[in-house]
Design goal:
The structure is a single chain. This protein is an alpha/beta fold and about 450 residues long. It has two domains: about 150 residues, Leucine Dehydrogenase, chain A, domain 1 (Rossmann fold, 3-Layer(aba) Sandwich), CATH 3.40.50.10860; about 220 residues, NAD(P)-binding Rossmann-like Domain (Rossmann fold, 3-Layer(aba) Sandwich), CATH 3.40.50. The chain has 16 helices and twelve strands. Strands 9-8-7-6-10-11-12 form a seven-stranded mixed beta sheet, sandwiched between helices. A five-stranded mixed beta sheet has the order 1-2-4-3-5. Helix 1 packs across helix 16 and helix 14 crosses helix 15. The longest helix has 26 residues. The protein is globular. The chain starts with a helix and ends in a 5-residue tail after the last helix. The chain binds nicotinamide-adenine-dinucleotide. Nicotinamide-adenine-dinucleotide binds next to helix 9.
Length: about 450
């Protein structure tokens, strides 16, 4: 079945086919052939590695745990992408996520390809000792295909710096004498991790929004007003609102809580965070929520928000408790989606009132819902553009590990914002001119970069 990623890659290739500036020296029959080859290359991974990890449990039983490492494309550099620890992991999902990594790295000019890993477990069902063994076995089984210049995993859903430290330590043990610091990213600082890595995705997500609405809209106002482009009209309408913008954030974890804090503190935008949600509830106050208090509570309660009237009273927080999905349908200007995939779908998109949506999570909007939002001229900053802060700072971590020279936190954020600004400046002019969505423009840009590299490297005829 064609995934949303495959569909947009196919559309990007169609759009590029009609662009004379793209591969100008390839014409006629050869052009058609080249496009067919490109479609085949980009819609399939280079390699699919699967293993059944043999894990002796603490109760004496042995379990075989299915695990994947999928290497989608390494045209632009070593494969790069997280390892997901989740019961629902399957080959199709990991392959799709690996393809998204190829595109994400391409649009942000990160010299990495795309990969992704997965281990089919619920990590809560295992002891720390068993999880440590699972991490070691993952490295042992996939050792031949991993390494700082081959494939560099990072944390993903269900894994964290603890697992990356364990994996790097095992990589070091099984490859004595070889460089090992850059074999995994998202590690703890003591193990060679980067300052700012944990907050990088949430900060990048908020930066993408703030940059477009505040700086870009201001600097390009005259040009935007003259383009007669529907998304430019939407942007200026929001930028010109004579009141504070209201913001809702779905998901209050690593990405959502940081983005909400940034919005709360952003004096430039006067962003008013009126709603946040987690896996249980939505909290709402039309006058704005005290995000720092909620963030401190959630840090002490395994990522959960205060969910009862008594808990809210004890924190002196004035908020209504609404159902979990309510966050999607509130009357707000801006909606950050930072929980999980498939949240805005055909069956609920009509209730979404926000005029500006930022994807912190991967694929939180389904293909059909995305089209419906575009028909209403809603601006959507897609995942591969907005949530790349994690992989961008992972790249900085890999660089720091190579040099064994480490940056200060403020240097990391400054480099992160420069990179995201450069990417946006590359893509926004086309977005506000050609009528395609920002997602389509990001894919087009990434596919153009990958295709040109493949052609120049003699891999397309
Ligand atoms: P997290 O586990 O820290 O937080 C997830 C949040 O979503 C929590 O508040 C949780 O309560 C909430 N949630 C869970 N199930 C929900 C449901 N059914 N409905 C509503 N909310 C629900 O995860 P995170 O690291 O913040 O990542 C969030 C998303 O961003 C994921 O999709 C992840 O793949 C993506 N992402 C994360 C990073 C990163 O660096 N952390 C980078 C890129 C993409």
């Amino acid at each position: 079945m064609e995934t949303q990623t495959d569909e947009i890659i196919r559309q990007s290739l169609q759009a590029l086919g009609d662009t004379p500036a793209f591969l100008p020296d390839v014409a006629g029959n050869q052009r058609e052939q080249v496009f067919q080859s490109l479609a085949a290359i980009l819609s399939t991974p280079n390699k699919v590695h699967k293993a059944f990890l043999r894990i002796p449990l603490e109760n004496g039983r042995v379990r075989r745990i299915p695990a994947y490492r999928i290497q989608h494309n390494d045209t632009l550099g070593p494969y790069k992408g997280g390892v997901r620890f989740h019961e629902s992991v399957n080959e199709a999902e990991v392959t799709n996520l690996a393809a998204l990594m190829t595109l994400k790295n391409a649009i942000h000019d990160i010299p990495f390809g795309g990969g992704k890993g997965g281990i089919i477990i619920n990590p809560h069902d295992y002891t720390a000792k068993e999880l440590n063994l699972i991490c070691k076995k993952y490295v042992q089984y996939f050792n031949d295909v991993l390494g700082p210049d081959k494939d560099i995993p990072a944390p993903d859903m269900g894994s964290s710096e603890r697992e990356m430290d364990w994996m790097m330590a095992e990589y070091k043990s099984v490859n004595p004498g070889k460089p090992y610091l850059g074999s995994f990213t998202g590690k703890s600082i003591i193990s060679g991790g980067s300052l700012g890595r944990k907050e990088a995705t949430g900060k990048g997500v908020y930066f993408a929004f703030r940059y477009m609405l505040h700086q870009y809209a201001k600097e390009q106002r005259e040009w935007l007003a003259g383009t007669d482009n529907r998304f430019a009209r939407s942007l200026l309408a929001l930028a010109d609102l004579p009141r504070q913008l209201s913001v809702a954030v779905q998901g209050f974890g690593n990405v959502g809580a940081v983005a909400a804090l940034e919005a709360h503190r952003c004096s430039r935008m006067n962003g008013k965070v009126v709603a946040v949600s987690d896996r249980n509830i939505t909290l709402y106050n039309a006058e704005g929520l005290p995000v720092p208090i909620l963030q401190q509570y959630s840090a002490r309660h395994w990522g959960d928000l205060p969910g009862t009237a008594e808990e809210l009273a004890s924190l002196d927080v004035d908020a209504q408790i609404l159902e979990r999905e309510a966050v999607l349908h509130l009357d707000v200007d801006v909606l950050f989606l930072a929980a999980l995939q498939d949240q805005v779908r055909d069956d609920n998109v009509d209730g979404v009132k926000a005029r500006f949506i930022v994807e912190g999570a991967n694929a939180p909007i389904t293909g059909g819902a995305d089209k419906a939002l575009a028909e209403r001229d809603v601006i959507v900053i897609p995942d591969i553009l907005a949530n790349a802060g994690g992989v961008i700072v992972s790249y900085f971590e890999w660089l720091q590990d190579r040099e064994t020279q480490f940056y200060r936190e403020d240097q990391v954020y400054s480099l992160l914002y420069d990179k995201m600004r450069d990417t946006m400046n590359n893509i926004l002019p086309a977005y506000f001119a050609d009528g395609l969505t920002l997602r389509q423009n990001c894919y087009k840009h990434a596919v153009m970069k990958l295709s040109t590299a493949l052609y120049r490297q003699g891999k397309l005829f």
